[in-house]
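Hi R.,

Here's the chain you asked about this morning:
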Amino acid sequence: MTATVYFNGEYMPKEQARISPDDRGFLFADGIYEVVRSYDGRLFELDAHLGRLANGLRALRIDGVDVNGLGDVVRRLIAENQLVRGDATVYLQVTRGAAPRVHAFPDPPVPPTLYAEARRLEPRGDPEIGVAVITVPDTRWARCDIKSIGLLANCLASQRAREAGAVEAVFVRDGVALEASASSLFAVIGGEVRTGPITNYVLPSITRAVVQRLCAEAGIPHRETPIFVDEIPGADELFLAGTTLEVMPVVSVDGVEIGAGTPGPVTRRLYDLFKLETARAGV
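And the predicted structure, written out as tokens:
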């Protein structure tokens, strides 16, 4: 089946979408993106994703996007691509638009480029078994709180993880394990769930916020505090959280087993609570 995508206000077959070689997303990675998860057609945390998209547009000073109208775009793409059964994602990307290659913003401004596509989600890892991760130095730019399309450092880290037989790479800066290349990082130490505070080096993850809320509702001790890389080998449990990974146990880091080398009880409980949350997701 030919995929239907959304491009600058129109729905069309994917092969008909054409991006200008002058687009600043292509030339400068001058844009942002979001990924929304769908469970049997039910969109999970859509408003939160659109809110983060709006914040990113303000940070990059990109105007002219009707963020409120994108919810209808996401729903239509799920329906038109026959993704109302099973797990799927919708990818949204906004760039500053097409203009002659000059570093400063186009003057006068040009219309932004908006692209969206839906696809079936292929699972990464098994929560019943857990996954391996590696650590890598954090070489990203200093505004990781913006969901920029400039992901070269993330791509290189992800490739290193793949070559090491791991699912994810965790960025380490000044001895602190911040987050992974496409997910948030949590540790369970002494029965307490920990994740690092949001700074300019950490993305305000939607799934991260859901996990924190689930901890509060379930009475699971939790707090925001740095996870030092030298604490990781002695952690009781470790897990990742993200739109595509959900809540994923980590059973080894750089080849060293975490805890018993199997998914731990706190992570298992949070996974079960998270799945109940997704079952309540609305459209």
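The radius of gyration is 19 Å.

Let me know if you need anything else.
M.
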